[in-house]
Amino acid sequence: MKIGAVLAVLWVWWAGGVAAAAPTGSVVLLTDAAFEPAVRQAIAEAQEEVVVGLYLFKADGPPSNHARQMAELLGKAAARGIRVRVVLESANRGGDDVVQINHHTAKLLRDLGVEVVFDDPQRRSHGKFLVVDRRIVFVGSHNWTDSALRYNHEVSVRVDDPALARQLLDYAEGLAKGAPRRGVPR
């Protein structure tokens, strides 16, 4: 990582996690409540494509539910002609509500005009990421639930890097197609 990017991350952290506009090639740390406004802005400013990969997207509840608001924002992007695709977890491990919750959210998203696909049900996908316009990447611990967006301590990063975005888009495509796990085995 370049020294400028490191300094930018440290500045954001020191300033309380408030994200400012980030130049090309930048990395911005988004702690706790700084994540949601940065993601909302990126989706609202999208020109071509938004791809989301989530372990848990719980958009039920009243209109004040922040995850529901994120779902509606994705729907608005789709209505503007932006390609919006969401890849959700589908592995069912007895006693786990994740699949049921994700299927409920998938119906809402599809009703809003968003493309939704599920990963391979034989393998759990625990990632949380967003790629906007094949350039802006968000990766971190934030599931899209009201708790994660409003109450939990969470940490994510925003990276402006087309090469990283391409890698993550390829990864998302692999999840959607049930590709085997990647990386170096231990």
Helix content: 25-40%
**Class by SSE composition:** alpha/beta
Q: How many domains make up the 3D coordinates? A: 2
Distance between the termini: 25 Å
Quote the beta fraction.
Answer: 15-25%
The fold-level CATH name of the largest domain is: Endonuclease, Chain A
User: What is the N-to-C order of secondary-structure elements (H for helix, E for strand)?
Assistant: HEHEHEHEEEHEH
How many strands in all? 7
Query: Low-confidence runs (pLDDT<50, min 5 residues)?
Result: 1-21
Report the mean per-residue pLDDT as an integer: 81
How would you write the strand order of the largest sheet?
Answer: 1-7-6-5-2-3-4
Number of helices: 6
Rg estimate, integer Å: 16 Å
CATH architectural type of the largest domain:
2-Layer Sandwich
Shape: globular
CATH C-level of the largest domain? Alpha Beta
CATH superfamily of the largest domain: Endonuclease Chain A
State the major sheet. Answer: 7 strands, mixed
